[in-house]
Amino acid sequence: MFRKRLNSELGRISVDQFKEAEKAPFALVLDNVRSQHNVGSAFRTCDAFRIGRICLCGITSTPPTPEIHKAALGAEFSVDWEYCDTALAAVARLREEGYTIVSVEQAEQATQLQDFRPEPGRRYALVFGNEVKGVAQEVVDASDACLEIPQYGTKHSLNVSVSIGIVLWNIILNNLK
To answer: pTM for the complete prediction?
Structure first.
């Protein structure tokens, strides 16, 4: 018989402990993400995988909003975030800080997600795009690499928050053990 564990039994760290903890070597860039629920979900997923930074760009909403909070469940307080007018400006700043820019997009010459192996000691900025148009071509052009999530159905895309979860889980749990 399985008994669900209580939240108090999960040994979660506090927001202050999260702020002080070592983070995974990744930042997220959200390029014109329309849905505040997707933004909130990105915060929550970043908290789960101890990603320390999100760049919210263009029309992407910023906290505080009830919709972001509803999906983030408070993760907007643990994960640091900043706003940039454009994703292109965000990736330029992150590159100056030493990040390798990786767009998650269906692109020619893209690396399939399962084949991506982050180099130890490197930091990566993972760019996720708009729910309809994806990552802007100018941002793809400015990227050092592209990752593609293999798909086998009739649709040509996944929800951006689902993509964030798949990519972070794959990279962190499969490659950075």
So the answer is: 0.95
